[in-house]
């Protein structure tokens, strides 16, 4: 599952540098997460780093992009160039 940033985002700038995949960027009004790059930090960390640092708890799982742990790991391998 990819994550999504809700409109409760206060643009505090702490999530973007924490993303190891570069999935978080500044949108028109709030930060946004690219579901093609979001692995929920699978392959990098035990927990999603953006969720850990978010002061307003506005980063839930995106119901539009449901993925298993195996799918997230495969995406991580593809993004990092480790896929065979």
From TrEMBL:
<feature type="domain" description="4Fe-4S ferredoxin-type">
    <location>
        <begin position="31"/>
        <end position="64"/>
    </location>
</feature>
<keyword id="KW-0677">Repeat</keyword>
<dbReference type="GO" id="GO:0046872">
    <property type="term" value="F:metal ion binding"/>
</dbReference>
<protein>
    <submittedName>
        <fullName>Ferredoxin</fullName>
    </submittedName>
</protein>
<dbReference type="Pfam" id="PF12838">
    <property type="entry name" value="Fer4_7"/>
</dbReference>
<feature type="domain" description="4Fe-4S ferredoxin-type">
    <location>
        <begin position="1"/>
        <end position="29"/>
    </location>
</feature>
<keyword id="KW-0813">Transport</keyword>
<keyword id="KW-0408">Iron</keyword>
<dbReference type="GO" id="GO:0051539">
    <property type="term" value="F:4 iron, 4 sulfur cluster binding"/>
</dbReference>
<dbReference type="InterPro" id="IPR047927">
    <property type="entry name" value="YfhL-like"/>
</dbReference>
<keyword id="KW-0004">4Fe-4S</keyword>
<dbReference type="InterPro" id="IPR017896">
    <property type="entry name" value="4Fe4S_Fe-S-bd"/>
</dbReference>
<dbReference type="InterPro" id="IPR050157">
    <property type="entry name" value="PSI_iron-sulfur_center"/>
</dbReference>
<keyword id="KW-0411">Iron-sulfur</keyword>
<keyword id="KW-0479">Metal-binding</keyword>
<dbReference type="GO" id="GO:0005737">
    <property type="term" value="C:cytoplasm"/>
</dbReference>
<dbReference type="InterPro" id="IPR017900">
    <property type="entry name" value="4Fe4S_Fe_S_CS"/>
</dbReference>
<keyword id="KW-0249">Electron transport</keyword>
């Amino acid at each position: 599952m990819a994550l999504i940033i809700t409109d409760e985002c206060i643009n505090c700038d702490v999530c973007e540098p924490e993303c190891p995949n570069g999935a978080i960027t500044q949108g028109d009004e709030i930060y946004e997460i690219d579901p093609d790059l979001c692995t929920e930090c699978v392959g990098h960390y035990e927990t999603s780093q953006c969720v850990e640092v978010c002061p307003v708890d506005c980063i839930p799982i995106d119901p539009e992009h449901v993925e298993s742990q195996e799918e997230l790991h495969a995406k991580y391998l593809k993004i990092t160039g480790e896929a065979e």
